[in-house]
Prior knowledge:
The protein is α+β, with helices and mostly antiparallel strands. The protein has 28 helices and 34 strands.
Amino acid sequence: MALRDSQPKTIHLKNYRVPDFLIDKTDLVVELGETETRVKSTLAMRRNPESEDWSVPLELHGVNLQLQSIAIDGDPLEDDEYYLGGELLSIHRSLNESFIFSAEVIVKPQENTSLEGLYKSRNMFCTQCEAEGFRKITYYLDRPDVMAEFTTTIVADKSRYPVLLSNGNPVASGEEGGRHWVTWHDPFKKPAYLFAMVAGDLAHIADTFTTASGRVVDLRIYVEEKDLDKCAFAMTSLQKSMAWDEEVYGREYDLDIFMIVAVDDFNMGAMENKGLNIFNTSAVLAKQEITTDASFQNIQAIVAHEYFHNWSGNRVTCRDWFQLSLKEGFTVFRDSQFSAAMGSPVVKRVQDVNLLRTLQFAEDAGPMAHPVQPASYMEISNFYTLTVYEKGAEVVGMIRTLLGPELFRQGADLYFARHDGQAVTIDDFVAAMGEVSGRDFSRFMHWYRQAGTPRLDVAGHYDAAASTFALTFKQHCPPTPGGSDKKPCLIPVAMGLVGPEGDLPLRAEGLDGATHAVLEVAEAEQTIVFRDVPVKPVPSLLRNFSAPVKLHYPYSRDELLFLMANDSDGFNRWEACNQLSLDILKHIIAARVDGHHLVLDPRLVRAFRGLLADQSLDKAMVALMLTLPSEALLGEEMEVIHVQAIHDVRREVRVAIARALRGELLACYDALQLDEPYSPEPEQIACRSLRNTALAYLSLLDEPALLDRIHGQAVAFANMTDSHAALVSLVNSPVPAAAPLARDALARFYEQWRGEPLAVNLWFQAQAGAMLPGGLERVRGLLEHEAFDIRNPNKVRSLIGAFANANAVNFHRGDGAGYRFLADKIIELNRLNPQVASRQLTPLTRWRRYPHDLALQMTSELRRILAEPGLSADVFEVVSKSLANLDNR
Ligand code: PHE
Ligand code: ZN
């Protein structure tokens, strides 16, 4: 375990040096055992001709390894010929230009609770090497710019572990006594973080994909026998991803076999190991009885994401971990395009923007704010963030918006062709885009190197006499830890001007009459004047959310209603509704904080009534528009987060809407009952989402008959989407009559699904997120439940994570008990699994945003964590940064 014996060091991008040694071939023999595992490595190494210093000794990374022996060119090293210090093994023997390094180590996967390196998940052995887990398997140059050809032999007990997998192709196998072995060879050079191996008693489903050039690829999904009935959806998703990447990016798969393995204990969603993706069961297993529509969509996206990494990540990889967004930002962008193409592009965009605004903007405004290309880190695991992934994807999307689809594709082609087989940088990616377009990206690079969300203030001025409309843009990026002097970014602003008859032709410098334009806002302040504008228009700005900024335009509520009905951009119709809801809620909340009660602006109810009445609208969009901004987003929008006022006002407004639109909501709920068999296809998903949005409103009404129907939907177990939606509504309903129904539905749910861990996770989550009083007590009780296990990250996220992140009123209770609870759990997790511990910290690190008395209690818990002996680098970095004075870093 990476426990800290001294303060962790900060690693800086500016100190990057090429490796002094390279590894051409890596040969591993892994002998798996019930108490210990023996790893024999043979590395064909040489000095890097590009190294700046040929006198430096060879130093290899290694963590928690019991060294048995080392040899150079077959000659064992004496004790004084090497030095083991911290996480480095240094070799003190003069070395030839090329040589064979071999070592034998013992590791203890059964004791490895960090889920990094080689570990056991239930009865199977598996690995997780990104970012720096390979050093927990053997001594190595564990950095992504050292790429080797791997041959791996796995030896194990045949009856317990009949299936032995690694990267590439199986090339040999055999058995002896009760043990058997399989050798895998991966012809593609790769960094150690893409290594994987699995051993277990696994079943699989198989299918094929024929590539555009006619090669037949064997596709397999390996799971425990009991989960074989939950693999079909992921398989179809994989085949769709493979076809899409050929069609849209011209990228074919390159090995003869592609495998996915599902494991229950996994720190993240999934991992793109070459030819052998390892997935969290939650990111791959699906069937309608236990999987919600949202999960189906998530699974399709993650399968695609990991598959797309085969090119954006594996064939072309990262030079160092500061370039993480090179693969992650680009790959998230690619999977978003894919999901958009598989369903409704606007719905997908709204979902992505909601995520970005709620979580990434918060990160960018908090103590861990960092650029998409960070300049430094202590623990790289802490930088698998919304900024690197989601904002990184936005930045790639902006490049595409600026270049247009054809040039962007040419740029991607050039990037892949030029850097195939290399470990490169974000600058190499942008250079390819610059070369095909002849554009200068220097100002654009601030998006990669500056933290913080730019704020874009826009003012409009209509001159009726001159028939001109002027838009003035002012951009400003707030200071973030370690950076206060921010440069203006190049912001692509997709826009139109909407008049009573629709979009007006745009005439200005460089624009001659199209109704849609992408303005390039690059200065701190700049103005564009549109000519021949016959009427005062309403500008539609940042269409499809063309840049990750906080846009401010002084729209009146009537102008927002106008855009909601008339904008030609689907995203901005939703955005107008969203801004209207936000504006109305924020006013009522602000008044509430001052002790005043405002009435709800009737225009919101009228607008919602219109949405429910209009049969021509996309149901998924209506559902999104009828859903009020989340408490988290409302909090983000306020100077100081007043948790109770936000919660109360949002609930009261929902009750008011439910009362005013009872008839319409009920009609919608009744009309959208589907009688076709379930399928996770977009049209059905849209129907269910609107119907369950109506149900959520109806659950707030004190009407026994309605509550009975909701309870009936929960316990009919027709499909998980409907059952889960009804359950969540019941457990959150403030109506007293709902309480016994919620209790009954929860009990029946558990009875029904106690054998399905993924369904049980939903059950934990529903209770952890229930906002009625007493939440902490309920969560404490559930920690003792037979199905809870703190070593399983999915369980931690479903119970502890859901409580701290999705149950603000209970987590932020005035006596600080929610904070104490979370800190206690983080201290416990720190010893078991530092990555999970560190991720659970996020809500506490946001203390600056809360009223003083809460902030004080949050910081006192952070200090208590910091005082813990044996704090991991992961937790130390986040806690210390969140407590640090903003201006002295
Ligand atoms: N590289 C993985 C992905 O984004 C995420 C991951 C990172 C998984 C680190 C495990 C460990 O696809
Ligand atoms: Zn990824």
